Amino acid sequence: MRIMSEMLQYLENINLYMFSMMNATHGSSPLMISAGKIIAVYFIDIFPLVMALNLFSRERENGRTAYLATLAGGLALLVDAAIRSLWYHPRPFAAGTGYTWLHHAANASFPSNHMTFAATVAAAFLFARRTRRQGIFLLGISLLIAWSRIYTGVHFPLDMAGSVVVALGVLTITYRCRGPLVRPWLYLAGAMSAFTEQRAAGRAKRRCPPARVARLRRRRKAANHVKPRTIGAIEQRQPAMMQLNNTTDNAETQTKAMMATVNSPERPHNHLGHRVVDARPLVADD
Predict the structure, then answer these.
(1) By three-state DSSP, how is residue 142 classified?
(2) 179-199 confidence digits (pLDDT tens)
(3) pTM above 0.85, yes or no
(4) What Rg value do the Cα atoms of the chain yield, rounded?
(5) CATH code where residue 17 lies
(6) Range of 74's domain?
(7) 265 found inside a domain
(8) Biggest alpha carbon–alpha carbon distance for the chain
(9) Residue 189: inside a domain
């Protein structure tokens, strides 16, 4: 027990030191304080918006990831409530530490609900292949929220670290048990995606009248049948083309033989030096 208490005291000292380094003071920039307030209060609304957009997306994988993130986020918040009920850790202003720039209830600070939900959703989108870019974006927003909650004096750095541990643990369990836990959500996601696809098909049908669709189908069908007919015609013409080629080759062979006979050196020449086909005199028959 003594070793455990010493370790907890050591962690608490590190926690207080990091909080004093990150907390805004009266000498801080008013613009930074205003930005910290806005991020700490309103940036958490980005996560439900991204989840809703993916729920109604045409990509079914995006919808499934959003439903999985919703389920994991809800379970993570339940774990947060259980931890807070079992162990109370005061907020900085309740412990008389640092400066507070936001009005907040003096309830338990460990772990942070904002950071738990944000980290769970960001990790769920980051681990999915099709939503990885959105996960990177949400991870950046999560880091901004963690900084702003410490900067405005409503949370300790240890609260944010505990929230990340809770988020990853709950998300891992959710992925491990996603068969029985997530199957109803996946069916609902598939139904929503099918509904979205039907709506998109209806809009496309209104933009493209049925007569035009039928005309395009006929053209496509005619285009698909051109190639087989052409191939069949070529196959039918191949024997005739081969016979014509043979006839041409025979004619060329006969012509070459005749020219070789005419140009033979054994043939006699006339007085002009030209070869003649037959130099024998013509003798009339008796």
Answers:
(1) helix
(2) 666 566 556 655 555 655 666
(3) no
(4) 43
(5) 1.20.144.10
(6) 8-181
(7) no
(8) 153
(9) no
